[in-house]
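re: the backbone from monday

yeah here it is again, tokenized this time
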């Protein structure tokens, strides 16, 4: 039965899982590349990447030594794909929502923000300049939540709080942002400074543009991190191949 999930990556992941179940890709076979799958399903490469990560997390496929993604043997008790993907938001989808809501929230906040709130934002921004990643993440969250609070609109504040909660509650988000973090991607203070300056100038258009630029940068960071992870697997496999070749050559010289 076709899975009619609300999220595009879920529908793609379910379609690929169904194709695996139908025997299109038997156990141990290599899946097509990201670009080919994107063309087949008529979606973007980020959507395919979310779908692949979801399937990998749930045991349908595995990354094998940088050579690609392969179908894993089916365990007897594997959870049906439709059920396992329910209520799970990916990092790209979440950040797109943040661009929409936080972009408009910051534009409103530029009109209503107080001097005391601006001073608090400056103090939070200074906390982002450090090596304690947990503390930096906490400061990042409080920076955005304070902007939402500065709108004086309880509904906007609730939506922004909910989006940030999703980042830590959605297994997909946790996995994707975790990969980005392992790749060295951290909150950048220089991306937040233009937001604060636009708020200080009470310029809604500049504030919206600065927030959207920052959040688009988040999407690019996650894309790069997941790409780098694949490249690192390929590099590791290449190193192993070179070592094997060197050992064979060394034995031939003896």
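seq for it, each position gets an aa:
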């Amino acid at each position: 039965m076709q899975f009619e999930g609300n999220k595009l990556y879920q529908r793609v992941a379910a379609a690929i899982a169904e194709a695996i179940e139908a025997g299109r890709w038997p156990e141990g076979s290599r899946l097509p590349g990201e670009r080919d799958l994107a063309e087949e399903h008529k979606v973007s490469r980020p959507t395919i990447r979310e779908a692949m990560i979801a399937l990998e997390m749930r045991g349908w496929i595995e990354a094998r030594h940088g050579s690609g993604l392969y179908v894993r043997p089916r365990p007897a008790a594997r959870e049906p794909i439709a059920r396992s993907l329910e209520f799970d938001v990916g990092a790209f989808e979440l950040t797109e929502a943040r661009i929409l809501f936080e972009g408009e929230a910051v534009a409103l906040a530029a009109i209503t923000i107080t001097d005391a709130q601006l001073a608090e934002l400056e103090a939070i921004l200074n906390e982002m300049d450090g090596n304690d990643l947990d503390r930096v993440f906490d400061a990042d969250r409080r920076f955005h939540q304070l902007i939402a609070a500065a709108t004086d609109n309880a509904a906007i504040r609730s939506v922004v709080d909910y989006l940030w909660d999703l980042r830590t509650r959605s297994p997909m988000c946790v996995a994707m942002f975790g990969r980005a973090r392992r790749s060295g991607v951290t909150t950048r203070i220089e991306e937040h400074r233009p937001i604060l300056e636009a708020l200080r100038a009470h310029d809604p258009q500049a504030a919206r543009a600065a927030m959207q630029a920052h959040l688009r940068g988040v999407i690019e960071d996650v894309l790069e991190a997941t790409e780098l992870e694949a490249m690192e697997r390929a590099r590791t496999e290449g190193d192993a191949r070179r070592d094997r070749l060197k050992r064979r050559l060394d034995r031939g010289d003896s």
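Residues 204-253 form the longest helix (50 residues). Residues 234-239 have pLDDT under 50 and may be disordered.
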